[in-house]
Design a protein that fits this description.
By secondary structure, the protein is mainly α. The chain has 11 helices and no strands. The chain has one domain. The model has no long low-confidence stretch (mean pLDDT 89).
């Protein structure tokens, strides 16, 4: 939603200001310039990225138009789930959660938290490390190191679309110059025309530079920045799970382990101690 609002503000600010200054908006409508800029930039995008990055970037685009799903309610669900799992381990032993981690979709513990269960990646992260804990062959230091490596890998992999979009935006001003130069060449081919007509051709050529810069910094670059922000929010979920599991491995009670996880969240989404406690009590009563 904010992406659309931002785009509207850009259009109103740029084109509205141009019109208020006495400019004619019709002169800026140059579809062939857009074809050259868009076609050149998209071709460079395809040539400069492998199939995996292209697919990931295309898949990420619709998500950028949606609001963030990483809110306080989701984090409270996540921490309530971790509390339930660790409480079951504390009461019944590590072997009691084997069925839950092997089939989380059928687990009565995981099924209480549909928002978390719908995220395949975070569920896999949780169950994989719970499985390692059940095996009993790794200490907290080894698991922490493995978690750090996996989170780092996830972050780098998730950043690929942002980097691809940023490079696409960086190249658009250059393709705008290419379109402008092509327009100038076309003007020089018709140098015998009357001055008024030559002026129109030059104006059309200059629109290419304008569109390349506007598309790059007004429309494409913000998407790269937004993707990076969403990736940071997603990574925070993994860090929260990591801290909770490590606290449990070091012998802390479930309530205290979850408190460790709460502390690593961003202040804008972090529930208060009382809010989390009330949410856990409600989930236990279900």
């Amino acid at each position: 939603m904010f992406v659309i609002i931002g785009y509207v503000v850009i259009m109103v600010g740029v084109f509205g200001g141009y019109a208020m200054a006495g400019g004619h908006l019709a002169a800026l409508f140059q579809p062939l310039e857009l074809v050259m800029i868009g076609g050149g930039a998209f071709g460079a995008f395809i040539a400069g990225n492998n199939a995996k990055t292209i697919k990931a970037t295309m898949g990420a685009m619709p998500k950028l138009l949606k609001g963030s799903r990483f809110n306080k309610d989701l984090y409270m669900e996540l921490m309530s789930l971790m509390f339930d799992v660790l409480s079951k381990v504390r009461k019944e032993g590590l072997m009691s959660i084997e069925g839950d981690i092997d089939s989380p979709e059928q687990s009565p513990v995981f099924s209480k938290y549909p928002s978390v269960l719908s995220d395949h990646h975070i569920v896999e992260f949780i169950t994989d490390y719970l499985r390692l804990m059940v095996s009993g062959n790794m200490d907290a230091f080894q698991i922490e190191n493995l978690m750090d490596n996996e989170i780092d890998t996830h972050h780098h992999e998730g950043a690929a679309p942002a980097h691809a979009i940023a490079r696409l935006g960086d190249g658009m001003p250059a393709f705008g110059i290419v379109a402008a130069v092509m327009g100038v060449v076309h003007t020089m081919e018709n140098v015998g025309l009357p001055p008024a007509e030559l002026g129109i051709l030059i104006a059309h050529a200059l629109v290419g530079t304008f569109l390349g810069i506007l598309l790059a910094y007004g429309f494409v670059a913000p998407l790269a920045s937004l993707h990076e922000q969403k990736l940071e929010e997603e990574t925070k979920m993994y860090q929260c799970v990591k801290v909770i599991l490590l606290a449990s491995l070091n012998g802390y009670a479930p309530a205290l382990a979850v408190e460790f996880g709460r502390k690593v969240l961003y202040s804008t989404e972090r529930p208060t101690f009382s809010e989390l406690e009330d949410h856990i009590k409600k989930s236990k009563s279900k």
